[in-house]
Amino acid sequence: MELLRVLVVGILISWVLRVGGEEVMASQPGDIPAIYNFGDSNSDTGGIAAAFFPMAAPCGETFFGRPVGRASDGRLIIDFIAEHLKLPYLSPYLDSIGTKFQQGANFATGGATIRRQNESWFQNGVSPFPLDIQIEHYDQFKARTSYLYNQAKEPSDRSNLPNPEDFSKAIYIFDIGQNDLAVGFRTMSDEQLQAAIPDIVNQFAAAVQQLYKKGARAFWIHNTGPIGCLPVTTVNIHNPTPGYLDEHGCVKGQNDIAIEFNRQLKGRVTKLRAELPQAALTYVDIYSAKYGLISNAKNQGFEEAFKICCGHHENGISIWCGQKGNINGREVYGDSCANPSKVISWDGVHFSESANLWIANQIMNGSLSDPPIPITKASSYTKHM
Ligand SMILES: *[C@@H]1O[C@H](CO)[C@@H](O)[C@H](O)[C@H]1NC(C)=O
Ligand SMILES: *[C@@H]1O[C@H](CO)[C@@H](O)[C@H](O)[C@H]1NC(C)=O
Prior knowledge:
The chain has one domain: 3-Layer(aba) Sandwich (Rossmann fold). The chain has eleven helices and ten strands. The strands form three sheets. It has a six-stranded mixed β-sheet, with helices on one face. A hairpin with a 2-residue loop joins strand 6 and strand 7. It starts with a helix and ends in a 15-residue tail after the last strand. One 2-acetamido-2-deoxy-beta-D-glucopyranose binds next to loops. GO terms for molecular function: hydrolase activity, acting on ester bonds. Belongs to the 'GDSL' lipolytic enzyme family. Pfam families: Lipase_GDSL.
């Protein structure tokens, strides 16, 4: 028995080692049967909109032609990942209309944090569905769909249900943590926030462990982006003291905390590999992709990196994308720009579709991943367990 275990682990390790080279078993887009996604507005495909209020036009104008619950003019990174894996766009678990769950579900909600917060959605836009609740939703989704699938008498009774066998072959994607930092900037000193990072990262790890216990094996984990480069922050900074902004115009102190969060997250993912021997954990450096775009916008075919396409920001007053407001007696509409495809930031916080495509293209081939595995192969080293 012990020998067998050593053998299996040995095979697994050699497999992982070869993944960096060319020898990997040919695995194709289409081999991963489902995506389960957890996160915040960076990957929310309509969850928070279904739970509360719909997104306002002009969101969705570029691709969907109408607001579809995404904070962008079109597709998000998770949508490009779904396309690449030849899977349908993910339906939000919280949406009861027009949803399809055969090949995955999206538990992400705009404003979500890893840790539970004391703030409310109505005050500060903090999601009431933080990561631990998203995992609860997943548990319930899995249990109830599996029950119904196994009860079904006719194939047509299963038409909107995932095959229970696919849960262990699916890819589990995470993009969360940005709001833990954003709330921290608002409510804590830098020292307090730094001191909180180990707990935030541990609670993230607990979510991964819980999914693993329920049979999840392939995890694709985005780190957090350069939050100090969000135009909604930089637009209100005038005459900064030297060193407050970095060479590209991002708030250095905020990015330093994001970098520290990512350093600890990466370390925790490494530990998880030892704790969860059958898991394939891929850590994805989305920070570098986003910062690479922002610091090199013009060469990548974009306009000035901090331009906001949709919404209106002036003298500390913000009329958000799709909202109406009043500035000095003037009625102002948070309209969109003429050419969203040339702008990185859709609304000051979220990326435009063309920026999302650019970022997705950077990360999907594995060049920013640890280990450097393309997303199509992110689950192949657990296949024969
Ligand atoms: C929420 O408030 C409680 C009680 O004041 C405090 O102990 C806890 O640390 C707070 N949680 C967060 C995430 O700030
Ligand atoms: C991955 O894709 C990016 C963007 O197209 C490209 O710059 C990079 O060279 C690619 N890396 C690999 C290893 O294919």
